[in-house]
Amino acid sequence: MAGPDRPKMTDTARDDVFKTGLVALIPQLRAFARTLTGDPTAADDLAQDAMIKAWDARASFEIGTNMKAWTFMILRNQFYSEKRRSWRQTQLDQESAERTLVAVDDPSAPIALDELRLGLAMLPSEQREALVLVGAGGFAYEEAAAICGCAVGTVKSRVSRARRALQLILEHGAYDRDGKAASEAMGSILAHAERLSGAR
Amino acid sequence: MARKAAPKRPPALDEARLRQQAIGAQLRQMFEDVVNEPVPGEFLDILRRADSDGADPD
């Protein structure tokens, strides 16, 4: 990072600083992309596209400000602009068809990674991203709000709804024993979660 | 919170809290697992290419 008193950097020096910062963020960007797409290959494509976008837009980045939030925002915009949500939906449908979530009775039992991934995939995308940014990405609510382009209060409520919904999903499992379709069962679980959080 | 005896919480609340902690821990773990993966070479290739393109008009 540049010292406060340093005179204006040359473009090359600036690019170098920017590049170093960007390289350091690659692992985080991959992780965020993975949670958005749910698929490792699609995630890396997305993260690489976002990196290119970030590099091309480097002149608009103010060195010394929060580069992680800035790149996450670019990645997120890239995800939504390319309707990549459809990938996730396909992925989710496949997984749901193949797997059955098993309800867990012991509240302190560790959560299986597969189940969490699947549960996360079932959340509405705006809840999922809010929860990931705040709960795993290490962002403050304010930063997450800037990344998602919404109000801080909105992020807070999305995170809390996501937590509640995820808990219900993991407790009840995606499939009802009576053979109801997973999506249908999920619909009622999420509706239940919404009712709970709506009744403030 | 320096109470001698914590007031008894309804068991459901405790359960919910435990469950949330477990979910939170696993969520961070899931994210960290990816963060700790080695970065595929293509990522660095992109920036190398950007370099050799001479990258920068004005």
Record keyword descriptors for this entry:
heterodimer, A: 200 residues, mainly alpha, Rna Polymerase Sigma Factor, Chain: A, Arc Repressor Mutant, subunit A, 2 domains, 9 helices, B: 58 residues, 2 helices
Helix content of chain B: 55-70%
Mean pLDDT of chain A: 81
Cα separation of the termini of chain A? 45 Å
Shape of chain A: elongated
User: Can you summarize the main beta sheet of chain A?
Assistant: none
Low-confidence stretches of chain B: none
Order of helices and strands of chain A: HHHHHHHHH
Brief write-up:
The complex is a heterodimer of chains A (200) and B (58). Chain A has 200 residues and is mainly α.
Structure description:
The complex is a heterodimer of chains A (200) and B (58). Chain A folds into 2 domains: 11-81, RNA polymerase sigma factor, region 2, helix turn helix motif (Rna Polymerase Sigma Factor, Chain: A, Orthogonal Bundle), CATH 1.10.1740; 101-198, Orthogonal Bundle (Arc Repressor Mutant, subunit A), CATH 1.10.10.10. Helices cover 70% and strands 0% of the residues of chain A. Chain A is built from 9 helices and no strands. In chain A, helix 6 crosses helix 8 (152-172) and helix 8 (152-172) crosses helix 9 (182-198). Chain A is elongated, with a radius of gyration of 19 Å. The termini of chain A are far apart. Chain B has 58 residues and is an all-alpha fold. Helix content of chain B is 64%, strand content 0%. Chain B has helices at residues 11-35, 41-52. The chains are: A mainly alpha (200), B mainly alpha (58). At the A-B interface, helix 1, helix 2, helix 5, helix 6 and helix 8 of A face helix 1 and helix 2 of B.
